[in-house]
Amino acid sequence: MSATAASVEINYAEALQKSLFFYEVQQAGVLPEWNEVSWRADSMENDIIPGGWFDAGDHFKFALTIAYTATLLAWGYLEYGDAVKKAGLDEKYLNNLKWGLDYIVAADQGGSVVATIGKDGFDHTWWGSPEVYLRKMKLATGATERPYDSTTATSVLALCASSLAAGYLVYKDANYLTHAKSLYEAADKTRSNDGQGMGKAYYPATDFYDELFYAANWMYMATGDQKYLDECEKDFIPNFPLETQSTTRKYTWGFCWDDHSQAAALLYAINTGKEEWIEQIHRHLEFWTTGYDGKQVGHTPDGMAWLFQWGSTRHAANTVFLALVAADKLFKDIKQLYEKNKKFAKDQMEYFFGKNDLGLTYVIGMGEKNPRSVHHRAASGIHDDHWNSLGTDEKTEFQTEYAHVLYGALEGGPNQDGSFTDNVGSYQNTEVAIDYNAGFTAALCGMIKDYGGQKLKDFPPIEKPKWPEFLISASINQAAGTYTEIKVFAMNHSAWPTRVIKDLSYNYYFDISEVLDAGLTLEDITVKVGNDQHSGDEGKISISGPHLYKGTVYYVKLTFNDGRVVMPTGQSEHRSECQFRISIPDPKQGIWDPTNDYSFQGLEQNVMKETPYITMYDGDKLIWGIEPDGTKPE
């Protein structure tokens, strides 16, 4: 660790509390009552398998990463559940773990699983919130349901079996074990990663024997049946990867969603006590610490163990968890190895929490200084699909500020030279994902055991909107002696949570005293919509009035047939343009005077300006502007 890196104090229970918050942010479908993310709402309720977790900063759902994540969360709890309870996070932890496990149960189709749900291409080209995803997808593609595919790929089935076997050990739910057994049998029978479908483009599972080895150990732990260990000895260990041009079992690389070799080896060492497998884990952890046989993982100049540019913190965090478990289960009586691995865990965790040369805490919502950018659609609250300026100081009409704090998410992390590209487009650095947080969350459980901590009493905070969610901008098209023509943008920039309003309308107020003084009546005033952006769809605007407000002040009401067409999904959808005219008969030139009209104040010719004097409504509820008597939204 660099001498310039500042020391840090870490409340690991707070960190775990916030990491669980991140998983609640990622929830799809109808949100459970215990979800505490004030700015999230239901989404993708009609998925073929509802629920589960969105994968990363997008809206795909992958059985592979959900199962991988659930297994690690379960493993962390099985090893360090007493610490989780002591920190006061037991119920919260178990709720979140069960959410992932229940999705895997539902995805099990008997011999196959629903592997991927999402619109390939669309998910990575559109930037917006999950609550309005389906509306944008329908507009862009015509589809009303998200496509999905199923797979018999061994790696996916084996990971699903692992998650449910581990889940059974936590909950003793017989249904989990039933599904785990059948999924394991299907994975073992198939022994092929062919037919991965859409998921292969994002998570291409390679070798499958490591996942089978991993799953067999979990099945043994869940059932006590020796046959699973026998299968390891007979089939899976002979296929354990080797070092290049060597007969030595592979100890380099690291534990992640596509490589379960070392995690499986650790479980097998614990389950059997065999010295050769204890030595295997020793070699692997030496590679990650001080090196073994001339080979050592890379490091940033300021001390983070660095394996690969995609989610570098993820690999280090996964190894922290393996090191903690190995120290507690295998090296407890070997002082030098015990202390070495505990120190590695502490050093790496402190790096994540700000003890690095940049002073950056890569865990959002922790520490003194976080990256400004995070590659995450829902957290951005973007309404116009223009995300490039997020986290910058650009002087631009586009959004630069994130709507939400993505508490607990572990960002991808630094480059090998210790630098960090703090840019929303630099997804190797700023992406977050459920698998990034998986080993990290499990490791936090172990760190609470070693260092204690207590959850925050007033977390999470209920966010207040940082900007108006519904608003009006307007300009004068024309103002003459017999009429006023106004151009209006009705806008939806909602993000707390992102939503649409069916019964949407707005009022334009005007004073008719000069009309009455000239001897005309209310019947001489006509109102008419000219250009309407939604004249050809379900949002078509109708205009009514004049309606009496008070005294000589009247208003016209412009009402959407279906206001949900005004949606925060893109540059043309987040605002609805309408031009309307209020007039008296043409022969009455010079009578009409808009300057005394309440809603006319502050407007300029052909310059769109935000105005509070044209009020907007959700049904009868005022949601934008100030009525002439001073009434404001609640």
From TrEMBL:
Major enzyme class: hydrolase
UniProt key word Protease: no
Active site: D422, E431
EC number: 3.2.1.4
Keyword Aminoacyl-tRNA synthetase among record annotations: no
Family: Belongs to the glycosyl hydrolase 9 (cellulase E) family.
Protein name: Endoglucanase
Organism from which the protein derives: Epidinium ecaudatum
